Amino acid sequence: MEDFQAPITGPFSAPRDTQPDRTREHMLPCCPDCQGPLKRTGDTRKRRSEDIPEDLKPVITEDILHRDYCPACQKRVEPKLPDVLPRCTLGNRTLVLSAMLHFLQGLTIGQIVDTFNFHLRMKVTPGGLVQMWHRLADLLFSWYEQVHRESLASAKLHADETSWRVRGLTYWLWCFASNDSAFYMIDRSRGSPALQKFFVEAFEGTLITDFWSPYDAVVCADKQKCWPHLLRDAAAVSEKHSDDPEWKSFSRRLIGVYRDAKKLPSQRTELAEPDYDMSVARLEGRLAKLGSESWQHADAARLAKRLSKYGNELLTFLWHDDVPSDNNAGERAIRPAVMIRKNSYCNHSERGALTQSVLMTVFRTLRLRGREPLATILDALAIYAATGNMPPMPQKAE
Question: Using CA atoms, how far apart are residues 328 and 265, in angstroms rounded to an integer?
Fold first, then answer.
């Protein structure tokens, strides 16, 4: 008998104990190879598949709202709908799904409009979508502020920035990422004024960044500079000056410090604490010596100056188990924004930039926390409709 492979399943496949919505039975009338008659054995096997419904026609709901009079308040009152925002003709599921496609998946507004109008046969307009997204951002703004507060309270924080366009002008999109959050902020400044808006208080954790100078003014417990940024800079110089003896000496010693530093954490359990501390001190001394020597080669002198300034921030990861030597997490967190920038014209107004910041923060933080964004936000909007208050953003799923 032919071996059948198990179906490929993904993380969102229905559990095996879920009851199917329909069951079909298939039986061959004859042998598919020789077309001869078959002897029925009664043996069967089951396989499951998931698909979208054949008819994607939207569900049109007419709600009858009873408007009653309250003698005490001397006014008419009516119930609030749990799944439709006031003055909206599209339900919350459509609203949140369209926002996910734009702010999480990076689809353009034109692509979303085409998908809804042509494939889903639901009439939406670009202006209507944008206005609904603004209203959704207003409701989720408390979650945006919550992520801001929780980011400032985290043990470590990765920071990065990239150019952005607002009203055709150059702005900057900042990203501050921790293990379970990603906070985005669009600002006109690429310097300290923007950082002061985020760091409204001293940061008690470790800030992990590249060598962009405005980060120098941030008050925090510790800082870790990104080694890959430094090594990429050195590698670019090596491509042009690989034969220069002075540069070869500088580059070899710099890479040697990095390699020895990366090996040291694995030896921490084997070394006595004073021995480990002494090993780190020796590495710090090697960096300090490399940065203090006089170099005739221009690029060696330039990078030596960087080592002299930031040498004490390059080996912080040796003192903390959960602090990396790179800012890869920050670069990964800002990468989706770079892809969105390539696909769209960014924002046409300051209001659009705020909505971009809020919804990108909410959607990506929910993903980092293992929460399904669509279901989580729909539940929160239902609670808001019933109580008038948004619940707190859920923490990381266990």
Answer: 19
- DSSP 8-state assignment for residue 3: P
pLDDT in tens, 359-377: 999 999 999 999 999 999 9
pLDDT tens for 239-268 read: 998 889 999 999 999 999 999 999 999 998
Q: How many residues does the chain have?
A: 398
State the SS3 of 136-169: HHHHCHHHHHHHHHHHHCCCEEEEEEEEEEECCE
Element at 64 (helix H, strand E):
none
Exposed/middle/buried for 278, CB within 10 Å: 0-12, 13-18, 19+? exposed
337 contact partners, CB below 8 Å, separation of at least 6 = 162, 164, 173, 175, 184, 360
Question: Could you tell me which of 289, 355, 346 has the C-alpha nearest to residue 133?
Answer: 355
63-67 LR contacts (CB < 8 Å, sep 24+):
none
Phi, psi of 305 (to 5 degrees): -65, -40
pTM: 0.87
Measured distance CA(189)–CA(183) in Å, rounded: 17
Could you give the CA distance from residue 354 to residue 138 in angstroms, rounded to a whole number?
10
Tell me how many degrees the CA angle 162-167-171 measures, rounded to the nearest 5. 25
Torsion sign over Cα 298, 215, 227, 240: negative
Q: How far is CA 383 from the centre of its chain?
A: 25
